[in-house]
Design brief:
Blueprint: H1 2-21, E1 32-45, E2 57-72, E3 75-90, E4 96-111, E5 116-126, E6 131-133, E7 136-142, E8 148-161, E9 164-177, H2 181-185, E10 195-196, E11 202-204, E12 209-226, E13 229-240, E14 248-259, E15 264-274, E16 280-281, E17 299-300, E18 304-316
Antiparallel strand pairs: 1-2, 1-18, 2-3, 3-4, 4-5, 5-8, 6-7, 8-9, 9-12, 10-11, 12-13, 13-14, 14-15, 15-18, 16-17
């Protein structure tokens, strides 16, 4: 991942430096296009003898959306890297994670007709740091490569313009990795859980990976809504052939970037996820589990939703 970012930035800087030395009449190589946005946002609330009440808080969020694309002749190569991380401290509590994402998408296509490409796709998703079941900060529920997702696919990509693409594949392998053995033993994120004997002793470790073969669709939209407002939307759908085809995994992310001036922006990011293999325990505000009519914890697949609003320093490439 770091190598890709270094290569991308090196290409961008090299082209920028070369452009300054070229004669005005020289023809520039426009096969490669690099663009992106990075933002850093900081929020602080300080209270001292505040009659209205409240708590001190400190929050920091960072976001990077980098794109390196190649288009020449009948070949097209699209690369997108999304990184995000956020932390917050409220009152006397310790620092807690509020956002954490690593997402790399790469598509290489050979043109078949005016707008259609035979395409190979690779997608990797994970996170940087450990996640806990707050307010219980002793229960680990995720960390780097727990889960990690790798998707390999062959299909066709419809690209009528640089603003929109629709990729459809009947042959896709989705691999889920859970490299933390405790989480794997518990069967987290859909992997096969550990086996125990009658005395409760583990006789077989939980699986660290799950491989699914199925159909996949990916839709990308990148448009200028109006002056200084840009919308990027990405929708992914996956259906496994080895399970009930009606169980469709959904990943839908939207980034609305609103530019105040050259260095100040407001970003709104929403992420919606549904994965039938992920069981989520419903909890109350105090962290206690919700119970059904039989007194059992409510656990099962749930629609996950996250919204992040940030205002701060930003730089556009």
């Amino acid at each position: 991942m770091k190598r890709f970012l270094v290569i991308a930035l090196s290409i961008f800087l090299f082209q920028s430096a070369s452009a300054q030395d070229e004669p005005a009449a020289a023809v520039k190589d426009t096969s490669w296009k690099f663009h992106g946005i990075t933002s850093l946002n900081f929020t602080q609330v300080y209270l001292e003898n505040w009659a209205a009440g409240g708590q001190r808080s400190l929050a920091l969020t960072s976001l990077a959306n980098l794109n390196l694309n190649y288009k020449k002749g009948n070949k097209s190569w699209t690369n997108q890297l999304d990184l995000a991380y956020g932390i917050m401290q409220q009152g006397g509590e310790e620092l807690r994670k509020t956002d954490d994402r690593i997402d790399f998408l790469s598509k290489y296509g050979i043109q078949a007709s005016e707008h259609w490409y035979y395409t190979a796709l690779l997608n990797f998703k994970s996170q940087f740091a450990a996640g806990y079941n707050y307010p219980n900060d002793s229960t680990l529920i995720s960390e780097f490569m727990a889960p990690g997702y790798l998707l390999l696919s062959l299909g066709a990509d419809y690209k009528p313009s640089d603003k929109f693409s629709a990729y459809i594949s009947p042959a896709t392998a989705k691999m889920t990795f859970v490299m933390n053995q405790d989480l794997a033993d518990a069967g987290a994120f859909g992997v096969q859980e550990a086996e125990y004997n009658a005395a409760g002793r583990k006789i077989k470790d939980g699986e660290n990976s799950l491989i699914e073969i199925g159909a996949y669709a990916n839709f990308l939209l990148d448009v200028k809504v109006m002056e200084n407002i840009n919308l990027k939307s990405r929708l992914e759908l996956f259906s496994s052939y080895t399970e009930d085809p009606s169980h469709i995994d959904v990943f839908w992310e939207n980034i609305l970037a609103m530019k105040v001036n050259k260095y100040i922006t407001c970003n709104v990011t929403t992420t919606l996820i549904y994965d039938h293999d992920i069981d989520i325990q419903e909890t109350k505000a105090n962290g206690d589990p919700k119970l059904d009519e039989n007194g059992n914890p409510k656990i099962g697949p749930r629609t996950q939703f996250k919204e992040v609003l940030s205002l701060g320093f930003s730089y556009n490439f």
